[in-house]
From TrEMBL:
<dbReference type="Pfam" id="PF08533">
    <property type="entry name" value="Glyco_hydro_42C"/>
</dbReference>
<feature type="domain" description="Beta-galactosidase C-terminal">
    <location>
        <begin position="59"/>
        <end position="104"/>
    </location>
</feature>
<dbReference type="InterPro" id="IPR013739">
    <property type="entry name" value="Beta_galactosidase_C"/>
</dbReference>
<feature type="compositionally biased region" description="Gly residues">
    <location>
        <begin position="102"/>
        <end position="113"/>
    </location>
</feature>
<dbReference type="InterPro" id="IPR013780">
    <property type="entry name" value="Glyco_hydro_b"/>
</dbReference>
<feature type="region of interest" description="Disordered">
    <location>
        <begin position="92"/>
        <end position="113"/>
    </location>
</feature>
<protein>
    <submittedName>
        <fullName>Beta-galactosidase GanA</fullName>
    </submittedName>
</protein>
Length: 113
């Protein structure tokens, strides 16, 4: 993690990572485009050993708590995600999971097919 990760020019640090003991810090001193934000987020998650949930449709949020995966659809229309598992809210098994508009799911296991 330590040191300059990316620079826009020789004098301007665009992304800097540092660590002190167990703690780490990432500094972004620019306004990255969405693709760069995705790459930076992936690097930060990997550095922190946090598993990332990928392939989510726009407007879907995912949170993990232990073995549970919570999915939240912030859009008014139904969406499908590649996640499988038993929804603790309905008792149904999903493969894949379809969330209704503004719907939520709480998957036990929350695997990706």
């Amino acid at each position: 993690m330590p040191g300059h990760v990316a620079r826009l020019e020789d004098w301007y640090e665009a992304l800097y990572a540092t660590s002190h003991g167990r703690d780490g810090r990432w500094y972004v001193s620019t306004r990255p485009d969405p693709a760069a934000i995705a790459r930076i987020t992936a690097a930060v998650l990997a550095d922190a050993a946090v598993p990332a949930t990928t392939d989510l449709p726009a407007g879907v949020e995912a949170q993990t708590r232990g073995d549970l995966l919570f999915l939240i659809n912030h859009k008014p229309h139904p969406v499908s995600t590649p996640h499988t598992g038993r929804d603790l809210l309905t008792g149904e098994h999903h493969d894949p999971t379809t969330l209704p508009g503004y719907g939520v799911g709480a998957l036990d296991g929350g695997g990706i097919r």
